[in-house]
Here is the input.
Amino acid sequence: MNLIEEMMTRGHERVCVHHDPDSGLRAIIAVHSTALGNALGGTRRWHYDSYDAALLDVLRLSRGMTYKAACAGLDMGGAKSVILLDSPRAEYTEAQAKAMGRFVDSFNGDYIAAEDVGVDEQFVDLMSTETNHAMGGTGEGQGGDPSPHTALGVFRGMQACLRHRGIDQFAGMTVAIQGVGSVGVHLARMLHEHGADLIVADIHESSVDHAVKNFGARVVGTDEIVGVECDILAPCALGGVIGPSNIDSIKAGVICGAANNQLVDHDREATVLQERGILYAPDFIVNAGGLIHLAGLYLGLTPAELQQKIDDIEGTTLNVFELASQHGSTAHAAVALAEQRIAGGRSREESHAG
Ligand code: NAD
Here is the structure.
């Protein structure tokens, strides 16, 4: 893969690779856009099959963050970082987390790190000993775990889906949640409290047991959940879960979940879902709650303003559904909305400069 070509095609501003021989840290930070402001994005620790796979992941995820921040109405750009692990279950060391903090700091605030898969509040706390540009730690004003806020945003997105379909309550609805981890478990609780019936699947038995015991969920296998009979499918595990191998098996009328990059091929799968009449709530619109919480705190928004911005996900989702007929699908409409907001930011910048 040609890195420079991939960067240019996707419109990235800066991609940096860092190796810290003392701690063994190998990491990449990708800043996709600072058109709307400095860029907050999680740090993912993952065992990749190759350097190319890591690079592609960080390029895709960082662009998604630009779209997410733009559609959430935040004055923030988009970025993301990945830490390459030697083995799937490699534990982190204090030295690696601190080395990552110094790498983040070298961006002078253009990039602000936070949690993602494999990075918890304690890891963020360690990064924060080396930089002021990390959010999601346990310290004062750091925001902590963003997952409950992400779950609330997905819930608001689901409310928009139901409203679009002329339904005004969750009672009587069956929601299938793929992955009852940090976000999925909060989403399950909210849906249960609002009277929805739940079906869950997870590779971790303890997560499934918790959902059965606390929310009366029914369990299906991880290979069955996408095609299970239900009203709403909520992908809350990993990305790339809807593709040619399973798209025809989907029985849900609505897809709305927290996972990033749910569609294997954005253009192709979005079009098929639209043609099949399945209402797809674009992932980067509905999973923005955690970003809104952390970025909002970083930007100095009040708790009431943060709450309002997360609640606004419902209206933004409805707006995207309305725009879908002009753009071919809900997913294409979401990208168009993001690009319109980014272009608006750029023209604001240019007029200030002029
Ligand atoms: P998590 O790791 O806490 O939870 C993911 C869950 O999915 C785990 O319980 C895991 O066992 C399960 N899982 C993994 N593979 C599975 C499979 N094949 N089938 C079923 N279950 C499987 O992660 P999270 O923080 O809850 O995030 C979930 C998704 O949402 C991720 O894609 C993440 O990138 C995205 N997301 C999270 C946040 C956030 O605030 N945490 C924000 C935006 C997007």
